[in-house]
Amino acid sequence: MAEFIELILILLIIFLAIPFIISALISIWVYRDSKKKRLNSFIWVLTVWIIPFFIGLILYLRARD
Amino acid sequence: MFDAFERFFSAFFIFLLIACSFFYFYRGSSREEKQEKVLMRAFGVFWLFIALTRIFFYFIDYFLAGYYTGNIDAIFQTYDVDNYILLYFYLYLYLFDFISLLGLCVIYIWSSFRSKRESRAISYVMAIGYILLSIGWALEIFFIKNVSPFPRVVPPILLTIGVLITLSPFFGYFELFNKLIVRIVIFVVIGFVVVFLVLTLVFNLQLDVLSIIIILVSVSLLILVTVYIIFSVVRRQERESEIRKEEIQDTIKMFTRPVNININDVKMYREKGLCLVCKNRISRLTYVCPECETLYCYKCSSALSNLENMCWVCETPFDESKASKKESTSDEEVIID
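The joint structure predicted for all components is written out below.
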């Protein structure tokens, strides 16, 4: 049982940490870049954050060019 | 394991999510600015994605166990590769949605401090909605669900309320809300959630009668105090606005001429050194009517000279160079004749 809980915890940390760190880093970059490009940073951070599988990021990259 | 209410609310939540996503798509198509269009459509995609995830969760049991169990952690005990792949996908989707909801909470809380005054209320409301969604989502994680003291129906209800709150800015004029109303709304929503959770806990845990009575009495007291605070604040606000309205009316009334002024009134005002208009004691600059010697303070005389430009007693003009009301009305009468 202890091993089972340990496995769940490790999985959780991996599952929680990796997507969160990646999404947070992308959002920070989008926030800074959109400010530089004079785009609405609030809208683009939200868009990148909520659209799954990095589709939001692709949309942003298209919009900034 | 099977809870009919939980299933009903889960299904209702999925229905709401799909409706919500279509609503966002519709709003997105009606926006003129390109960036707003993108954001609305992004929200549409987000809600649709969550709806699809919920549908996936809804049916995953059937694929994994062959029938509905609602007990996902049992799958951990099986050593089937297909099951693990499905479970991995399940966990990924679950945590992705959870992180997205948490991120939206943070973004809206941040924007409620940073945004303009008129859109601050909307940010607060959205933040509350996403907090409820996050709580509901967190309570549904399978290993929390199994040890949670709350009934299984609680998370879908919280999720449903959360979605409805996030949709509410489209139907209410939140930009007109002042700080006080926003605080009351936040207070009521948080109070409602706390009371709801406490009551469900009370009825779910097998407590003895005395503790149930103590909890119910304290919750009722809390509700009464909350309602009293809200009503007193609203009454105070109403009274303040009434006083303000009365003050405005009085100020306006101050410059309306009384119907009957007799010579005794004028004498009394003159003897006491009071202004005929505002009834205050005249201390510095005074205007005395050259015909009837009625006293006016400087403020009232200048205001009256701009308004009707004639003495209230003898109708002599304050300023000879300006047209008085009497002259203008008589002119009008001539024109009409």
